[in-house]
Inverse folding.
């Protein structure tokens, strides 16, 4: 496929990340405010960020999951001859022609349920991941000297570590989610995986527990800078818009 093959599904990814990021940070601020106002005894600090971040992540996933499913399906399929077939893909021909076509065919196959295939492990993963991400970020910032808190380099460093730790702890569920999303495209699956636990057991039995962390190092290259930049821009925009912390 050449260089364009590396960007397959990128259109759906871009279409998803804009509303996802907006919902994630907006929901985080709202949940944080609701918790502080509704449960005065909870106080402020990293624990509050853990709770608010978890619910914010779940909210963002629920509203944007179909786009994540489409992105994964478009990225997984292979165009070309049977010799290019990888990971048990049924055919070398293009299964989906684009975002709209993927949405349409997925909906015709299984309705709304089909568009949310694999959402359970996504939620299981995003709750701890989003919560831990905000927790580690705010926890690290709390140990930064006051005169360094506004430094961009400091924010990037805190965001990088937060993304790395959050991704490491929750990555196996991300592997399970993607396996469930693309199972209909795979000829190697002898039976349909009915849930998160079923898929998790199947992966371990067939490939061993190390498969649950397959691709983690490569994922670091994407997630760590993405989270670092996201938190940095988020903090800078809060300061610019004078949003109270």
């Amino acid at each position: 496929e050449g260089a364009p093959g590396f960007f397959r599904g990128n259109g759906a990814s871009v279409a998803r990340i804009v509303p996802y990021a907006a919902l994630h940070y907006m929901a985080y601020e709202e949940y944080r405010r609701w918790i502080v106002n509704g449960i005065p005894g909870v106080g402020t600090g990293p624990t509050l960020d853990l709770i608010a971040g978890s619910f914010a992540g779940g909210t963002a996933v629920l509203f944007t999951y179909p786009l994540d499913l489409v992105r994964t399906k478009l990225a997984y399929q292979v165009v070309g001859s049977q010799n290019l077939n990888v990971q048990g893909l049924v055919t070398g021909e293009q299964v989906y022609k684009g975002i709209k076509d993927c949405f349409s065919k997925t909906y015709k196959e299984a309705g709304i349920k089909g568009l949310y295939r694999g959402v359970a492990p996504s939620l299981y993963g995003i709750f701890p991941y989003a919560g831990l991400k905000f927790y580690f970020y705010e926890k690290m910032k709390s140990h930064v000297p006051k005169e360094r808190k506004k430094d961009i380099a400091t924010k990037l460093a805190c965001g990088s570590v937060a993304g790395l730790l959050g991704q490491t702890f929750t990555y196996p569920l991300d592997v399970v989610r993607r396996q469930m999303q693309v199972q209909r495209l795979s000829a190697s699956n002898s039976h349909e995986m009915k849930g998160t636990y079923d898929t998790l057991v199947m992966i371990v039995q067939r490939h061993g527990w190390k498969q649950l962390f397959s691709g983690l190092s490569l994922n670091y290259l994407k997630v760590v800078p993405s989270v670092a930049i996201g938190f940095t821009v988020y903090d800078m925009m809060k300061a610019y818009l004078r949003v109270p912390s």
About this structure: The chain has two domains: 8-117, 118-244. The longest helix spans residues 46-76. Confidence is low (pLDDT under 50) at residues 80-92. The two ends are 48 Å apart (CA to CA).
